[in-house]
Design goal:
A hairpin with a 4-residue loop joins β3 and β4. 18% of the residues lie in helices and 42% in strands. The chain is globular and about 35 Å long. A four-stranded antiparallel beta sheet has the order 1-2-3-4, covered by helices on one side. The longest helix is centred in the C-terminal third of the chain and has 14 residues. It contains one helix and four strands, in the order ββββα. It has 77 residues and is of the alpha+beta class. The protein has one domain.
Amino acid sequence: MDEYSKIEKYIVASDVGADRDGIGIEIYSDNEMLLEVFRDDTKKTREVTLYKKELDLELVEQAIALFKKEIPWEFQE
C-alpha cells in the first residue's frame, strides 16, 4: 500500500504575515483544502488545522507523516 494513499494532492506553502511566519503543507481533495500542518517559527509551534469537520484518521496521520518528511523540524530564526 502506498505510504500516502489517502492524500490526493498537497502543496508545500510558506506563510509570512502579521499572524504567523513559517512553512507547512496543505492537503487538498477536489481543489478543496481539507487540512494544513504548519510550523510557525514565530510561536515555535507545529499545528494542525482542519478545514473540514470530519476527516479520516488515516488521512490525518498520513498528512502528519508527510509534513515530517517534507518540512524541516528545526525552527528558523
